[in-house]
Amino acid sequence: MQHVMDAAAQARPEAISPTRAEIAFRARRAAEYAVVPAIALIVSAALFSIFLLLVGKSPLLFYELVWRGGFGTVFSLQNTLQRAGPLILTALAVAIPARIGLIMIGGEGALVISGFAAAVAALPLLGWAPPFLILAAMGLASVAVGAAWVGLAGYLRHARGVNETISSLLLAYIAIAILNFFVEGALRDPASANTPSTFPIGAAGMIGKIPGTDVHWGLAAGVLLALALYVLMSNTTFGFAVRIAGGNPRAALAQGLPVGRLIVACTMIAGACAGLAGFFEVAAVHGRANAALAAGYGFTGVLVAFLARHNPLAIVPVAILFGAIAASGGLIQRRMDLPDAAVLVLQGFIFLTLLVSETLYGRFEVFSGERSAGRA
Amino acid sequence: MMDGALATVLIAMLGGAIRVSTPFLLVALGETITEKSGRINLGLEGTLVLGAMVAYMTSYKTGSPWIGALAAGVVGTLLGALHATACSLPRVNDVAIGIAMMALGLGLAFFFGKPYIQPSAPNLPSVPIGTWLGFTGQLEAALDINPLFVAGLATAVALWWALRNTRWGLILRITGDSAPAARAMGISVDLVRFLATAAGGFLAGVAGAFLSLSYPGSWSEGLSSGQGLMAVALVIFARWHPLRCVLAALLFGAAGALGPALQTIGVTQGYYLFNAAPYILTLLIMIASAGTGRAMRDAPGELATMR
Q1: Residue A336's closest CA among A27, A24, A11, A63?
Q2: A222 with A88: CB under 8 angstroms?
Q3: pLDDT at residue A9 is higher than 70
């Protein structure tokens, strides 16, 4: 029952009118949720520095290049933000199911299959339909296919008890195989020699950049969706029910909550987010669907969501940080002669340290003062 | 004519099943040991790939593929030990740690593996059982069996026997079924899980050595693409039974061999869809086997994913 009462207290703070001690308690909790991941980031940066020293490279130069390649110039900042867009969306695809207790890592597959669906949906419209119709068809196709793709893993979890972590990753491999099958065969543009691709969607199907910048609309969509999903999760009955079901499924069932439908709904929202990322990758970056869609955004999004503790608002800055690391990859490769997998190693270090840091919660006296008895 | 083609495909699938199933078998046996102790290690995909890279590198540098396979096993053991140590801390989730270990293993393998994509390292020798039996041609080639497959079979039988008949097997099963009961018996739950996860890592590392040193027999970044993960799913299908792991691995091997086998008779249509066959088969098998009464009854009681 404690879960339900905690969730109730968080969902309707104004209804309980918290005392000062209660507010102080919540502030300490919030500080803990910021400080512990920060410690994890610093520790993993230190561990990665040792790793770089062991392979004979300079950690200082590495972090300097991350700064320069990620934030140093207007160009690099735009490059960072460009990559942060899909990362926000794929991280949301992890964070929303996580709220109901599911660990899904299949965002990469939903992104790929949705990007492919967008490119295919544009094909019959090219040449005669107005641009907004092409874009609408692409957007609808990618969101619907993404929602169905991840929703399938959610449905299997609910209906058959199939482990969602494994099934979502299997679906990612299947998505990439389907894409390869079509771009190597029936839907291949004969002009795409080296990287088999679908036919290009052309200028009419491209969505363009945010005015005054070189950043495409994926960033704006990501930020807006993060805000909307934050409100959905914290200020609506739906979000309230999801958090109860995530905290204690048995209590939720006893309350008469439709846990199965909530699971499917969360996974469909997740799939729609990843699907939108696929849409922007095709309509704003590549202009066609090919193997380049599987660029790792889905997997990095898993790390972003965990680092943000599955909080949609916190996902935005964390996604920008990882966008910067990705954006500086080329510079680091050229200047330090490091393989591009260096970023993967860094991400692995951060992920592992972060998960181990879970054990720190509740261990610091500063953050874990007693909750006041004055609370109703 | 049709019969000839069918026989060709079937024999190619038999040979392919034996070859392709070996890494599945070794990883699944390792994961069986780990899950029997009540913990799940989803990171074996990373262990498999890092093991493949280390085996190839070591074989290239020392000239001995056997030292390469051993080195892969040692690295796998270390990764397993890291997973177990992290999970022994309070509040740390074993499924999530597995995802992180997958990322770390793949990252390290790609980082250190770059220089070894081109050169060729000595491969593990195979045992020409087909030749001994007096076969020629295709059947002889199909029965050219790698010692690691035989080792996998022996491990499966030994594990099956040990789980039923030895004190160690009993300790492992109790720890996996009820940690409080194990503690009451004076068993150190963390130590048992540490050893079980390290042993699982060893087998997954050796499985990686098979990939890079036998079949396909060279190191590349796309070497595994999910085989370690599928092997984890396969353990649920085999309901944590070592001998059923052998059958399940052979089934997966046959599914994986279908595309290449059809290619031998000139069917290249849908090659990329046949590549998806093992993943789709895994998913279907999970749908069929998860959540059933039998799976629930045979699952170790402490396993987080089955609760």
Answers
A1: A63
A2: yes
A3: no
Q: What is the pTM of this model?
A: 0.91
DSSP-assigned states of every residue in A263-293: HHHHHHHHHHHHHHHHHHIIIIIISS-BGGG
Q: Of B122, B125, B113, whose CA–CA distance to B223 is shortest?
A: B113
Torsion of CA A176, A180, A182, A186, to 10 degrees: 180
pLDDT of A2 reads 46
Q: Provide the pLDDT for residue A376.
A: 38
**Is residue B204 within 8 Å of B35, Cβ to Cβ?**
no
Report the pLDDT value the prediction gives residue A344, as an integer from 0 to 100.
92
Apex A94 CA angle, A91 and A97, nearest 5 = 145
| Spatial distance between the Cα atoms of A356 and A353, rounded to a whole number of angstroms | 5
Of the partner residues B114, B290, B291, the one whose CB lies closest to the CB of residue A339: B114
Neighboring chain A residues of B273 at a CB cutoff of 8 Å: 177-178, 181
Phi first, then psi: give them for residue B187, nearest 5 degrees. Answer: -90, 135
Mutate which of B49, B104, B224 to disrupt the A interface (most A C-beta within 10 Å)? B104
The answer on pLDDT for A69 being more than 70 is yes
Give the per-residue pLDDT at A192.
82
ipTM higher than threshold 0.85: yes
Calculate the alpha carbon distances from B171 to B57, B188, B192 in Å: 37, 10, 8
The contacts of residue A216 (CB under 8 Å, 6+ apart) are A82, A85, A207, A208, A209, A210, A280, A284, A285
**Between A373 and A49, where is the model more confident?**
A49
Domains and CATH numbers, chain A: 78-324 (1.10.3470)
Optimal mutation site among A304, A352, A364, interface B, most CBs of chain B within 10 A: A352
DSSP label of A372? P
Q: Taken in order B269, B271, B273, B279, is the CA torsion positive or negative? A: positive
Q: Dump pLDDT digits (tens) for B38-56.
A: 999 999 999 999 999 999 9
pLDDT at B13 over 90: no
